[in-house]
Design goal:
It is a single chain. This protein is mainly α. The chain has one domain. Helices cover 66% and strands 4% of the residues. A two-stranded antiparallel sheet has the order 1-2. The longest helix is centred in the middle third of the chain and has 26 residues.
């Protein structure tokens, strides 16, 4: 749904006939790939891929409370080439990793919280977990 939202926000293909016909489980467009713009399709996966770097730093900082160690360990993730390549494409992996990191970060927050945890804290944790799980399970085949 985030990919569709990116298409709605940017609408880069408004002049093209992109209404595909369903044929043997695949959608074929009446346009060539050179004419089709992937800006809207790639926006949210690239945005989530960018925010994943910040989240992994915050996770390491939540665990170590040391800026330098957090920077060193998060740089292992930041400079890993396959995540850079895959997260800028129109795939669901960056969204899945984003919500997984967000769930882990919120769990660390709850673990270190000194006050009593309320039902709203557990509700938020459940919502974040369900967003991570439903990213791939609800994806169309």
């Amino acid at each position: 749904m985030f990919i569709a939202l990116g298409e709605i926000i940017f609408n880069p293909n408004k002049n093209l006939d992109v209404k595909g016909q369903l044929e043997r489980g695949a959608v074929f467009f009446n346009t060539t790939v050179a004419e089709f713009s992937f800006v809207g399709v790639r926006f949210f996966p690239a945005l989530f891929g960018l925010l994943n770097g910040l989240l992994i730093f915050l996770i390491f900082y939540g665990l170590s409370k040391n800026h330098f160690l957090s920077l060193i360990f998060s740089s292992l993730y930041l400079f890993e080439n396959s995540s850079i390549v895959h997260f800028r494409g129109a795939m669901l992996d960056s969204t899945l990793v984003f919500f997984s990191f967000l769930t882990i970060l919120y769990f660390i927050y709850l673990y270190e919280k000194k006050k009593k945890k309320t039902l709203i804290n557990y509700f938020i944790l459940g919502c974040l977990t369900s967003l991570a799980v439903s990213t791939k399970t609800e994806a169309p085949i």
